[in-house]
UniProtKB/TrEMBL annotation:
Organism: Xenorhabdus szentirmaii
Family according to the record: Belongs to the AAA ATPase family.
Record-linked PANTHER family: 26S PROTEASOME REGULATORY SUBUNIT
Gene Ontology MF, one: ATP hydrolysis activity
The protein's name in its UniProt record: ATP-binding protein
Family matches, as Gene3D superfamilies: 1.10.8.60, P-loop containing nucleotide triphosphate hydrolases (3.40.50.300)
InterPro entries to which the protein is assigned, alphabetical: 26S_Proteasome_ATPase, AAA+_ATPase, ATPase_AAA_core, P-loop_NTPase, WHD
Keyword field: ATP-binding, Nucleotide-binding
UniProt-listed Pfam families: AAA (PF00004), WHD (PF22977)
Annotated SMART domains: AAA
Domain AAA+ ATPase: 485-617
Length: 698
């Protein structure tokens, strides 16, 4: 059981000024109880000789209180007689539950057995029954009411809608049948007792489905979120507050941010997985919820509910009683809502829907810069890392810890470098696409990509757009455009002209993986299934940092046809759905096709870039022939690359295949060099494959 305070200066057991008021009030209740005993019996009881005061001592202390119960002998708790109820946990509790003076005294009476077990004997003697070892409603009325009419009126304090019973400030025992309801025994609940002593207490039952969130010192949160929550959670009014529905992805650090915001106001945050409360017994479930709400209201804390929509779906019959329970002053409640979850609106209670604000690029950069450890390199590019990867204030400290582990693995004597942080961020970002897509770690760079100057220039423009996209949007274009801020590219041209390699090179330049979509697993003959697969791909890709690559995209995103049947209608929906996701995707999407004319015309105006890949000219083919050979493969000096480039108008992919096959021929003959014969044979085979004529070597 955790009894460590979250805010030590607020919850400190040795805070005399706070504990003083509680002890002075316990002394008053103790003296009232003992005086009542003497009035009933007129004599001492030998069983409690050392515990009971004489009647004269009682009267003297009533006139001149000592500030603490007589049985408390601890010197450091020798409280001064002048005690004020300012800034006390007891006064906070009285104010938060709007307790009357009578209800306050009943609560204090129920505290006495927690402090000294001898009170059990005293209660039994006063009530004339050996088993009556706890105070009863009747005893409380006798102690604190002066007339019969007052007793009758104050009985309302023990009804189920009263703060004492309805909010579970008192624990009552209804297991035994009694002659009168007034004989019901009670004790102040354990949680209330621990709160008044300054303990940070959760019962084992509560710990299963809830936890106090421990905020970081000066913990980070989006300023915009604080502004949005200001009136609902942070304002000082004591009215019934609206429920906040905080909508966002599971990894958006909503709970972390709310806890830090509340901590900045010196308030705690209790997170409860309300779906775990599910119980076949609705009464038991509602009792647990009352227990939770008591903790929140008692501490002036914030309640954070996870899986609220799931709970509402599974327990529709409880929505109305739950809304009734939430209609209490001083309750601050935030429900975490997932974007994919159906909206659930509380009944009888207003709700405020808030979209979790995403960190701006500037906020992410500042966050990363301030979190970097002192022993890192000076050339860390926080701006590019912040633009490329998704992280938040909650996950970043863990990512940087992992980066330091990778640095130790790489070189224990080195400082933390960009490559270490990049590796940690990249691994954290990787999503599991299953059979829908293949993750490719790029190996080839711009030096390996031999394309025309025009294509190379367009690739550089794509890289520029990726680098400066967030900056330009933040300068006002995001508000100006409104939507369609994603960056997408269409690569079209004959097979083997370098489209896939260009996509890989771009991913390598950005420093991320290439996510190559497997269309054979995406396209599904059943209506709606293809769209579901696309949705899953884009949802995962938005969390992943990789470049999303649809190869042979015309197989999936062909021209929309005239709607003749349900199949046509749903095929058209798939194209429309892709266009929508394409425009708003936060990363880079590349589609490639051999036949641009097969794509729906709507794509033409939606792509940020459209690049045509053509057959390489003679100059490029010569460069390809010269650069394709690995260092360990020797090529005979009699091989004429100029003639090879002139003879065959083939693609880079063809040249790669020819070089590989000719090297295999050389290895088969145990020859140390690849010669003209090997290349000619391989060239002939490659041209046969693509249905081209073989040119004679003359």
């Amino acid at each position: 059981m955790n009894t460590a305070p979250i805010f030590p200066h607020l919850f400190q057991q040795n805070n005399d000024s706070d504990l003083a008021f509680l002890l002075s009030q316990l002394e008053r209740i103790d003296l009232t109880l003992q005086y009542h005993f003497h009035c009933l019996t007129g004599q001492q009881d030998e069983r409690l000789d050392e515990f009971l005061l004489s009647e004269d001592d009682i009267i003297a202390r009533l006139d001149n209180p000592m500030g603490k119960p007589h049985w408390l002998n601890d010197d450091y708790l020798a409280i001064p007689q002048t005690v004020t109820p300012v800034a006390s946990r007891l006064t906070d509790l009285i104010e938060r539950f709007e307790l009357t003076d009578f209800e306050r005294d009943v609560l204090l009476l129920g505290l006495l057995p927690h402090f000294d077990s001898r009170y059990s004997q005293l209660f039994a003697l006063i009530q004339g029954e050996q088993q009556a070892r706890l105070p009863s409603f009747a005893l409380a009325l006798a102690l604190f009411c002066r007339s019969m009419s007052e007793k009758q009126a104050q009985q309302a304090s023990f009804l189920h809608r009263s703060p004492l019973i309805g909010c579970q400030l008192l624990s009552i025992d209804n297991r035994q049948k009694r002659l009168s309801w007034l004989h019901t025994p009670f004790i102040t609940d354990n949680s209330v007792y621990h709160f008044l002593l300054g303990h940070h207490h959760l019962t084992p039952d509560l710990e299963y489905y809830s936890e106090w969130l421990t905020p970081e010192e000066n913990g980070y949160f989006p300023i915009q979120l604080r502004q949005l929550l200001n009136n609902a959670l942070l304002s000082g009014h004591n009215d019934i507050r609206s429920i906040v529905l905080l909508k966002g992805n599971a990894g958006s650090a909503r709970a972390y941010s709310v806890a830090n915001i509340m901590a900045s106001e010196e308030r705690q945050t209790l997170m409860v997985d309300i779906a775990k409360l599910a119980d076949n017994d609705d009464d038991a479930l509602l009792s647990r919820i009352k227990h939770i709400l008591r903790e929140i209201r008692m501490r002036g804390a914030c309640l954070l509910l996870r899986n609220f929509c799931l709970f509402a779906e599974q327990n529709k019959q409880l929505l109305e009683p739950l809304s009734t329970l939430l209609q209490q002053p001083e309750l601050r409640v935030v429900c975490l809502i997932e974007p994919s979850s159906p909206m659930v609106w509380p009944r009888k209670l207003s709700a405020l829907l808030i979209e979790m604000p995403a960190l701006t690029p500037k906020e992410k950069t500042n966050l990363l810069t301030t979190q970097l450890p002192g022993h890192c390199a000076n050339n860390i590019d926080a701006i590019s890392l912040s633009q490329r990867y998704t992280f938040n204030p909650e996950t970043l400290p863990l990512i940087l810890q992992e980066a330091q582990l990778y640095q130790q693995q790489r070189n224990p004597l080195d400082t933390l470098q960009q490559c270490d942080i990049h590796k940690a961020l990249n691994l954290r970002a990787q999503q599991n696409f299953g059979q829908l897509a293949q993750r490719i770690t790029p190996q080839r760079s711009m030096e390996d990509l031999l394309v025309s100057d025009d294509i190379a220039q367009q690739i550089q423009e794509i890289l520029t757009a990726i680098k400066y996209r967030e900056h330009v949007l933040a300068e006002g274009f995001k508000d100006k455009i409104g939507y369609g801020t994603g960056i997408s590219a269409l690569f079209y041209g004959d097979s083997g002209t370098g489209k896939t390699m260009a996509a890989e090179v771009i991913a390598n330049c950005i420093g991320v993986d290439l996510i190559k979509v497997d269309l054979s697993t995406v396209v599904n003959k059943y209506v709606g299934e293809t769209e579901k697969n696309l949705s899953r791909i884009f949802d995962l890709a938005e969390q992943d940092a990789g470049v999303l690559f649809f190869d042979e995209a015309d197989a999936l995103f062909g021209k929309r046809s005239e709607t003749k049947d349900a199949q046509d209608r749903h095929a058209n929906i798939e194209v429309s759905y892709l266009l929508q996701r394409l425009e708003n995707y936060p990363g880079l999407v590349i589609l490639s096709t051999n036949h641009r004319s097969h794509l729906d015309n709507a794509f033409n105006r939606r792509f940020t870039f459209i690049t045509r890949f053509t057959y390489p000219d003679e100059v490029l083919r010569k460069k390809m022939w010269q650069s394709i050979w690995p260092e360990n493969i020797n090529v005979s000096q009699d091989v004429d690359f100029d003639k090879l480039a002139q003879r065959a108008g083939i693609t880079g992919a063809n040249i790669r295949n020819i070089a590989l096959l000719s090297s295999l021929f050389a290895a088969e003959n145990n020859q140390k060099e690849v010669n003209n014969n090997h290349i000619e044979t391989a060239l002939s085979r490659e041209l046969d494959k693509v249905g081209r004529l073989t040119f004679s070597n003359s």
